[in-house]
Every structure is written in C-alpha cells, then in structure tokens.
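For this section, I looked closely at the sequence of one protein beside the tokens encoding its backbone, which the following lines show:
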Amino acid sequence: MAESFDVLIVGAGAAGLMCAIAAGARGRRVLVVEHANRVGKKILMSGGGRCNFTNTGATPANYLSTNPHFCKSALARYTPADFIAMVERHRIAYHEKELGQLFCDDSSKQIVRMLLDECAEAGVRIETSCSIEKVRHGDAGFHVDTARGAFTAPALVVASGGLSIPSMGASGFGYELARQFGHNVLPTRAGLVPLTLSGKHQERLADLAGVALPVEARCNGVSFRNFMLVTHRGISGPSILQISSYWNPGDDLRLDLLPNEDTFTWLQMQRAERPASELKTVLADCIPKRFAQRLCEHWLANKPMRQYHEAELRTIADLLGDWPLVASGTEGYRTAEVTLGGVDTDELSSTTMQSKRVPGLYFIGEVVDVTGWLGGYNFQWAWASGHACGGAV
C-alpha cells in the first residue's frame, strides 16, 4: 500500500529543502526523497566548505536563461535579505568575502543543519538513500516507486539538480522525468568550469601551473574582472569560471592582462623613468615574474625600454590589453559548478514553478534553464525558486 503525502519532492539539495520548509510551514504533509546517502552534498562542499550561501547584489541580470525574464518573479519575492534573516535567526556567523559574496565563518554544515532544523519544525519527512524506480501520473496524482516503498502525492516537485559534479551524485534524472511528461529540455553544458588549452598555448603555459594574476576576461560582449589561475591543462580562477558560461568552442576569448592600468600610458611612463630596464622586468612589477618572462619569450620582443618607439609601445599595449587565448574546451561536468540549459522555462509558471503541461508537476533549482554567476547566485536561485514553489504546492 502506497503512503500518501500532499507534496513529494525529488532531491534534498538547496532548492528541494527550501521548498519543503515553505510547504511544510503551510501545513502540507511533505516527503523529500534523496538518492544519495546524505542531504545537501553540494551545499557541504561549496565555498571550500564554508558555503557561499547567497550574494547581496543578486539581480536577474546575474543569470543566464533562454528567457531572461523568467527568474524575475521568484527572485523579487525571496531576496538575499530573506535568507540572511534565516541565517541570523539560527545564529550562524558569516562574512562578506568580496563582491557581495556571503560565507559562513565556520562551516557549510551549519547551513545544512539550519535547513534540516527548519524542515523538522515544519514536520517534513526526509528519506535518504532512496532512489526512484518509477513515476506514474493518474487521476489520484503522482505514484512514485522507490527503494524505500511506494508513495503518492497530488504534487510532485523535481529538485534533482543538474549534471555538474557527478561524484556528488549528479545525474540527468530530472531531465528524464521532464521528458517523460512531455517537457522540452534545452541542450545542457558545463558552466562555471575551467577551460582547457591545446597546441601552442598549452605548451607555452603548462609549466606555469599555479601562477595567478588579475585579468579581465572578455567573450561575446560580456566581461569579468577577477583572478585567472594557470593550470596543468589550461586556465581557471574566478574570471575564467565566470566567462566559461558565455563561451562556446570556437568563440573568441580575450584577456586584458593589465586591467587596472591604462597600459599605453603606463608603458610610456616606464620608458621615461626606467629606460635601461627590460620589458620583462618592467612587466614583472604588475604581473607574476614567470608569466611576464613567458610573454616576452613568445608574444613580445624583449629589450630595454628606451629602445621601443611609440608604435612598438602601442602594439605591446594593444596585445596586453586584448590578449587572444584559444581555448580548446572545458574540464566538463566533472569540475563544473553548474549546468547550463535544462527544463524549458516557457513551459513553467514563473510565479509557482508549476508545469503548464501537467498540473501538480513542478521544477525548481538547477534542473531549470536558469544559471547564475559564480559567487552565491545559484544558491539564491535555489532558495528563491524553492520558496516560490513551496508557497504554491
């Protein structure tokens, strides 16, 4: 005999738990099923174990979606301030790292504990190590066969995440379920992910692995200013992870290697003040010495500053400010923080997250075609979409 609930939520991650809290607080009998052996695995690992749980500056402009308007309603109705209020109510100490990014002072375990305490207070039941074998929909609602028995509910919420970090248990289950019920799933790809290099760029930079420098990364009309990290296989760091969501193979990627300088004016000044110094020495004042030397070995002619005439300085400035880097691919879902694409938002209500095709079916969080920037934005989407859905189921 199947056990019955008002709401059945697939996935005990950020979005699923927030939805459960909101629905349970409204008196709904809620069951959350999670195929992994513990809840909130991505919460636990995020932010180096300190969980970058939101961003104070989150706006719809910080999200990628085929329909950029879809996220507006949920984000407006559950803001970073709303989540911060919950964090403060549970007396979790936090700090702003940079650019509005909020982290726990202590551990991401505190965020998971907070969510579980809120779920317990709302009477939510959570079953872990509970894989789903079959989902059916009929007059009585949804019938779900799991490793821990059969359950029924008039409302089914899919909060199963995307494909990023399969070692954490990520799978395409949510997309399969969407397709089962006639939903369009937009093509998915890895987002917020390191880029790989090949050929000459890889050969020239591979032994600089570990070198980091501030850059402005530009691609397809979008730019991000932050650090770049050279890796054994390519490039990473915040600026590269950010731009990776806007980059596709073959796209033109450019880096400003001196983003805090008017490079031409700076070079002229260096020539006047340090005429005997070589270019590689001068550059090493602004960028790591090994990187400066490598630039002068392969991309720039190195000589004493006094030997450069104006046109040469202009050419050097142009290259440093618009350095072309040919990326060959990404590190893929293995290290990606998010999945771009997903369940088509045109077939969902932006206020409730309910399917326009199947009454009682909802999609929230990463499984939906809404992807945030690096820095707490994806958690804010999870909280906001989960809360919107929890208030409607």
Summary: Residues 195-330 form a domain with the Elongation Factor Tu (Ef-tu); domain 3 fold (CATH 2.40.30.10). The first helix runs from residue 14 to 25. The radius of gyration is 24 Å. The chain has a mean pLDDT of 96.
